[in-house]
């Protein structure tokens, strides 16, 4: 090999070596989160530096970064978004207890149950002092059922126990004359409620979420197909991803949700058997007028119950 060829080869190797060292010193190891943190002062500059192609989707880029720099992102970041709390009117009865289990066990939701201790059937102040015929007298049994159900869920399904929040007992009325007027104006014209119940529970059950601007599931299933209320729901509900809501957002019932609409008690029992919580439905309480702690066997709830009451 002559001198010119040797000189050319050496010069080429030198140039390659120089470029290699320059490239090596300028690179950042993407697997080293500390190097990334030192090189990029904030996440935006880091994201921009890796956006090497306009055609690269931001979602894929974000996932790629997250996988390689787990230690870079702080806790409670956008990748660890906390689940929202879901709200439910719960009586300890068959329907609402099924919905509680469905939300916790089947849907993985965080649930805040509400139990309304107020008398919602008439203007009596307390159950003990009321001598009117139409008054559900089952609050003691419902509260006992709630305690047993909570213990059973936590024992049988401990993984959902943190998602079951302590029951909130609502014992204060809400004075809102404008809501009352709007409610009465809308429902009195269509005579929606049974005549024997001049005051109906839906006045308060709709007022509470409306006042707090909070959607609440209601475990209403025992709606007879020929009733006026069933007809009302048929024409006013709209299906969402996992629920039914009133389509008119200015309606007094707009904050109530009806997740059990269109299903039967047999449907609920079948799903509970498939998911393994049918035994919990058997410790619920349905009777409105118990006698010495035993079901009356005569009220509508007793007649519609498809599993035996707890002994």
Distance between the termini: 105 Å
The structural domain count equals 2
User: Low-confidence runs (pLDDT<50, min 5 residues)?
Assistant: 26-81
Rg for CA atoms? 31 Å
Q: Strand order of the main beta sheet, please?
A: 3-2-1-4-7
Tell me what portion of residues adopts beta-strand conformation.
5-15%
Structural category is alpha/beta
Per DSSP E runs of 2 or more residues, the count of β-strands stands at 7
What about the largest sheet?
5 strands, parallel
Which bin fits the share of residues in helices? 40-55%
- Our count of helices gives 12
**CATH first level of the largest domain:** Alpha Beta
The chain-level mean pLDDT equals 75
| CATH architecture label name of the largest domain | 3-Layer(aba) Sandwich
Oligomer: single chain
Query: N-to-C SSE series?
Result: HHHHEHEHEHHEHEEEHHH
- Sum up the overall morphology in one term: extended
CATH level 3 topology of the largest domain: Rossmann fold
Task: Characterise this structure.
This protein has 311 residues and is of the alpha/beta class. Helix 5 links the parallel strand 1 (85-89) and strand 2. Helix 5 (94-106) packs parallel to helix 10 (265-275). The chain has helices at 3-26, 33-39, 43-50, 58-68, 94-106, 139-156, 177-188, 202-212, 228-236, 265-275, 278-281, 300-304; strands at residues 85-89, 110-116, 168-170, 216-218, 237-239, 244-246, 256-257. The chain has two domains: 3-80; 85-304, Rossmann fold. It is extended, with a radius of gyration of 31 Å. The strands form two sheets. A five-stranded parallel β-sheet has the order 3-2-1-4-7.
